[in-house]
Amino acid sequence: MQWRVLLVDDHPLFREGLAAAVNLDVAFTVVGQAACADGAVAEAVRTGPDLVMMDLALPGRSGLEATRRILCDHPEIRVLVMTMSEDDDSLLAALRAGARGYLLKGAGRDEILRALHTVARGGAVFSPRMAERLGALVGASGSASAKEAFPTLTARELEVLDLLAAGLGYRQIAQRLVVTDKTVRNHVGSIFAKLQVRDRAQAIVRARQAGLGGE
């Protein structure tokens, strides 16, 4: 299978260099490019990509808005953020918008391609510095055991939450637990309700606070 990639960045030279790097991997083909949020939404409709590499600092509407709009209409698309922004608010906002990964510009070709492969297969990925920031955000409260932290979750729900916090996508979790995708989604819906969280990003932060998601 060859994954179709849409590149969104307002700097043409950076975009072209990124396109050249991505196209070197036979697993990917760049099917479109955009320089702004509205262009990204239009290109997503026109080209039907599997993956979008999204900058956050775009003219006019932000990359976060573009991500939300694309995923609202095409939830099957996977978005990998690639940006200069290292602040905590941008990281969490990207996760809440539905991004599957967060790379900093300056990443090497090999790191970019590894990230694309991970996200394409349903995983989540962060550049080393942003992974450290995410770890700092959850604080030092991870010493509490998961069972104590989430007494209302069943054993299977704890298992699903652990795998979710480790960066696995729903299909990967289903394969790991030998259940259907629908079963995993049902468990995730129950987890969200019991933890009173709105989305995957909030669930992951709560899970990592309790020590889940470790390798």
Could you please describe the fold and organization of this structure?
The chain has 215 residues and is of the alpha/beta class. It folds into 2 domains: 3-136, Rossmann fold, CATH 3.40.50; 139-209, Winged helix-like DNA-binding domain superfamily/Winged helix DNA-binding domain (Arc Repressor Mutant, subunit A, Orthogonal Bundle). The chain contains 11 helices and 6 strands. Helix 1 (12-23) links the parallel strand 1 and strand 2. Helix 2 runs parallel beside helix 3 (63-73) and helix 8 packs across helix 10 (181-195). InterPro entries: CheY-like_superfamily, NreC/VraR/RcsB-like_REC, Sig_transdc_resp-reg_C-effctor, Sig_transdc_resp-reg_receiver, Tscrpt_reg_LuxR_C, WalR-like. One of its GO terms (molecular function) is DNA binding.
Task: Based on the model shown, name its key terms.
alpha/beta, single chain, 2 domains, Rossmann fold, 215 residues, Arc Repressor Mutant, subunit A, 11 helices, 13% strand, six-stranded parallel sheet
Question: What's the quick description here?
Answer:
This protein is an alpha/beta fold. The chain has helices at residues 12-23, 37-47, 63-73, 88-97, 109-120, 128-138, 146-149, 155-165, 170-177, 181-195, 200-209, and strands at 3-8, 28-34, 51-54, 78-83, 101-104, 125-126. It is built from 11 helices and 6 strands.
